[in-house]
Amino acid sequence: MLVLLLVAYGAWWLAAQFTGDTIPGNPLVAFGFRRYRALWTPLATVFTVIAESALVGIAVLALVRRLRRSEIDKRATTIADHRELSEVTGRSALEKAKRLRPGVDMTEPGAIGLMVGTTVPGDAPILQSYEDTMVVVAGPRTGKTAGQAIPSVLDAPGPVIATSNKSDLRDHTRGARELIPGSRVWESDLQGVTGEAHQNFWWNPLGNITSLKDARRLASRFIAAEKIDGARVDGYFDGGAAELLAIYFLAAAIAEGDIMHAYAWLSDEANDFARKLLAASGHTIAATKLRTAQGLYPKQRDGLYDVARRNLNVLTDPDYARTVLPQRRRRIAGDDTDLAEWSPTHSLPEFDPQAFVVSRDTLYAMSMEGADAATALVTTLVGRIFDEALKVARVSPGRRLAVPLLPALDEAANVCPLPELPKWYSHFGSQGIVCQTYVQSPAQAIQVWGRRGGSRCSRPPTSTTTAAVSKTPTTSGKYRKPSGLSTCLAGRRPTIRTALPTPRAGAARQPCPFPCWPSSPKTAPSS
Length: 527
Fold this sequence. Notes:
Blueprint: H1 2-19, H2 27-32, H3 34-37, H4 42-68, H5 71-74, H6 90-100, E1 114-118, E2 125-128, E3 134-137, H7 144-155, E4 160-164, H8 168-171, H9 174-178, E5 185-189, E6 198-199, H10 212-226, H11 235-254, H12 259-266, H13 273-280, H14 284-294, H15 298-310, H16 318-322, H17 353-357, E7 362-366, H18 375-394, E8 406-409, H19 412-415, H20 421-424, E9 436-439, H21 442-458, E10 464-467, E11 489-490, E12 493-494
Parallel strand pairs: 3-9, 3-10, 4-7, 4-8, 5-7, 8-9
Antiparallel strand pairs: 1-2, 5-6, 11-12
Helix pairs in contact: 1-4, 10-11, 10-18, 11-12, 11-13, 11-15, 13-14
């Protein structure tokens, strides 16, 4: 009521400026004395109606907006606005981009950083800089692919790794990525996620193995990908099998063979050809270890070898094995195993992970859960690219990639469970590897990478973390004052919406249509 009286007094005062009437300076006095009420004019009535109608309209509009507010906007009072953010928005983001990428035209799409969304308070754009890594914690059907992964892949200035267990990320970005001058699209879809099983290249998993430590790294990735949920871990057999696997990888690599040579020698516990190769090439310790394993009590030895072979189950499918074999296999003198003469020919080009890192190419690697999962091959391939990226970064100016590498690891826990990934997050960004890892919940990350690794993945220490709708209670309530992102569509590109608190940016995504790429690409046949 007091507000309405003050508005009426203001209208009366304004009318008096036109009529020349005198009204008291105190509105309570003005409305309290009959002689002043007599001075009320029709013009004052008009001004009062206009002013109070506007006031009522504003109140109704505010009420309607309040009723329509989403859970996102209700959090606006508890999250940071753009003035409290640094290096991810505004001029500070631009200055950081100029420092990280000198000489680059900052008006180009994606030049400053990859769009994450806009803040709820202030409507300011939030960017993932080319020194940041990001984890997206988002449950199924929250639009994380359409809202974050697709725009990031489209705007990425350099090479892109895109993994998924569905075809949407590939369908909505492949056409645009193919238009990049001088670039090439590589695609691995051994389970027919896009409609037809295919892979348009082959690659050599043993290509960078020169020592036992290199071989151990490859073995650990096969083991992580083939790990059975809920299976009991046996310290003796699992640890021994991992070392055995690495030794056979090393033997095949020094003989300039392929991974199927290692598989063939591993399949015969009594075959000492690999041991002789190791001893002749100076790898005496590895040869001694292999002799020890082969000399174990038969039941113990068989168990150890069986566990090791189980991690290479993916290679028992000829179509899968062909993708990690050269166009013509090398015949190693003295090798008399059953697979020594096996040579499945093909005409696929070789994928060079090191060349990929310094290109603007795109790799789509897809795998689905199940008995026929290609997860082990996807995991080892992505891991190999990361190995090469780190090598290139360390000898590049500033110890970082000249053009950033974007790994968009959608459904990472299911498709690409790299054991080193949580640890890499602490330094990937500083070397120009702007990784985006998508997990459904912190619990899923813990299941795959363990409690410590899962915690790093769901809340990396120096990274921009983006969280979307996830029903896991531990997702929220951990952070002091997060930022939030608003919901809107900018042209054909969506910006991101916030749902849960995050350290620097949060997002819940809503799908929007994109031009699709046909589900039957013109790629070389897999055989």
